[in-house]
Amino acid sequence: MAKIPFNVDAYTARLIGRENVSKLEGAVIELVKNTYDADASCCVLYFDEKENVLYLADNGCGMTTSIIQEHWMTIGRSSKKNTFISKRGRIQTGEKGIGRFALDRIADKCQMLTGTEENHKKLLWTVDWTSFSSGKNITEIGAELDETTLSFEQFLEGCTNYRVVNLIKKEWKQNGTIFKLTNLRDSWNDELLHTIRENLASLIPYELSSVYKIYCFGNTDTEEDAEVFSDLESFSYDYKIEFSVSDGQTINVKLWRNEYSFGNDEDTILKKVGLFEEKEYFHNTPIEKEYTFSQIVPGASEKLKNGLGTFSGVLYFAKRTQNKRDQERFYQKDITGRIDVRDTFGGIKLYRDNFRVRPYGDPKTSAYDWLQLARRKTGSPAGVASDGLWRVNADQMLGSIFISRVNVALPDQSNREGIVETPEFRLLQEFLKGILCILEKDRQYVCRILAADYEKDHPVKQIQDDINRKAEQQKKDKKKKDTDGTKHTESKSNKEQFSNKSVDPEDAKIALDAKDEQIEELENENKMLRVLATTGIVTNTYIHEFKTLSHRLSMKIVMAKEAIEKDQDMEEACNYINQANEIREDFNSWFQVTIEAVKKDKRRRKKTNIVPVILEAVDSWNKTLHSKHIEVIFKGDYQKEIYLRCFPYEIDTIISNLITNSTASFDKIRTKERNIYIEVKEENEYIRIDYSDTGAGLAPMYKKNPEKTLDVFETDRRDPTGQRIGTGMGLWIVNNTVKDYEGKIDLSKNIITETGYFITLFLKKTGEMRDV
């Protein structure tokens, strides 16, 4: 039987090209990238408005007849697939062999003049893309290819802007390529040219501008006007962080602090706040550290880390606004007149082999914030000097991430509109957020120290206490005078003088009391939100158990119903009903450690013997965890009375969050002993709660600094791509609850132990423990 060859309709080939280069800006960038691959040092894009012609020229290596026939004219075949390093050592960006269809996206007709160093004659290639719509097979469509003696200057004959011709004469020798595109598909004008110029400005990183220049000419532009700069030299930033990753393991990081200026009193200030040893880091000397990948993204799969490969980047933080108070308390440099570069350089951009991978970081698009920094900021809106975790916002960041074609796990989408979202790509996103955490923690570390010093010199609380004291004293003096029958008289003029010059302490106290009541109400609401969050954490952690119990309960009820209806077997039905009732009891034990935590009798702050509260929680959790073979053991004196003026549900909140973490820890290690120990006792002015378990212990990233686990959203529970699957809120809730009781937390034992988790909580006893 004879073999019948496949053929392709010419229009299908055209569709493939349009699907892969769908946007005008993308088509232009695709062609400019080809000029870089050709080892050009100069690329010119010129729109002749008068003639409605677009030129694209480069002084690269040019093409020979064999290259045009074997590669340029063969769809899907590229000379860069196997040999992708140019003579100048550039890693070439193209490889799919369809970039030439970018010409079709721009115009109906195209002429190309190309030449090489070896051949004095040039080649003139001509194609009419409309012929691809004629219904013919691809093999019936052709382009004209002729040798010619035309020079590059002669090919540009008739163009309106003579400066373009002068640049070609100056920079072009025998080799290079010029495209002349006519019957343009889009309406080109100054506005479109400006948009393309902005896109090209960030097409290559600043470091390449010395070896590769791009010009974008209109009819009246000079060479200076047309040069596209990747100019960040004049950009003012507050923080800068550089990193490089070697083989997915070692990460070298450099961090620059550029936000602060302490003036002539710098030494005095830095000594006062305890930062004198770090003086050099406030003067353009970077803080250099080495990290492991697991320290940046805990729990990431080894396979994905290795697949991600080698890459690097540089990120800048630049705040958009500044108020007078922050400038004073943080010693910030004045940012008046700071240039806004967001429309051109804003966002975090991705470069492959020194060329932009669009659309990441494109202004005014959804891909501008491809790391979802705005969402991350919303989840943690804390101020930079607060106890919570401060996060950068999307419009405060810009920078460049450098990957290569050798990062094979990060392939381009076929339409040139981004990276295929592989698990490695999602790991890259998590890694970059981990790098940002280094910047964020350093800035917050410095600002917290400076803010604390500012508060000492501007003691708002002391002033408030002084007003309260004076108001109370004035109230007592007035009452005493009234009791003694002494009239309190004062002339009208004196009263007016007093009211004009000062605030009556009694009136001030009324206002302060009202404010304090509002704050207390908000604090109580916040505490209730913490316990509700704990309920959510517990429920989310054990959702699988809930589903299993629900399924088993349904099955037992159905089986009992069938036993009654079909077999009339009442004994078997009763057996199923009894089993269903046992499952119902399991449900009740879960409800006790979740919903019951906020029942009304626990929502009053009162003098409480916390031993029964803890014992009740231990009993509830033991009923809940028996199926997991986990036992909670109370080691203290059952009969001892230890009183604390507290909200009882906050004690439940502490216990529930700790036990939830321990349960997750037991899943990481195979051990027969799955025990949790709780002990409570009085120690000087504190009530001390010792908690420990026999689980896996802290992850290696927390061993040297276990206090890091107390930060909000801090978790080592991740999926293989490095994305968080734990809430990271449990210990943060515990820490904030302890702070409410002027307490402290000791995690030091975790540093010296290989397994097991140890935490000691100190809750300060108050002088008065009456009900409120």
Your description of this structure?
By secondary structure, the protein is α+β, with helices and mostly antiparallel strands. The chain has three domains: 10-228, 2-Layer Sandwich (Heat Shock Protein 90), CATH 3.30.565; 239-453, no CATH class; 601-772, Histidine kinase-like ATPase, C-terminal domain (Heat Shock Protein 90, 2-Layer Sandwich), CATH 3.30.565. The radius of gyration is 36 Å and the shape is globular. Mean pLDDT is 81; it is low at 487-501 and 767-772. A hairpin with a 4-residue loop joins strand 1 and strand 2 (53-58). Strands 5-4-3-6-2-1-7-8 form an eight-stranded mixed sheet, sandwiched between helices. A seven-stranded mixed sheet has the order 11-10-9-12-15-13-14. A five-stranded mixed sheet has the order 17-19-20-22-21, covered by helices on one side. It is built from 25 helices and 22 strands.
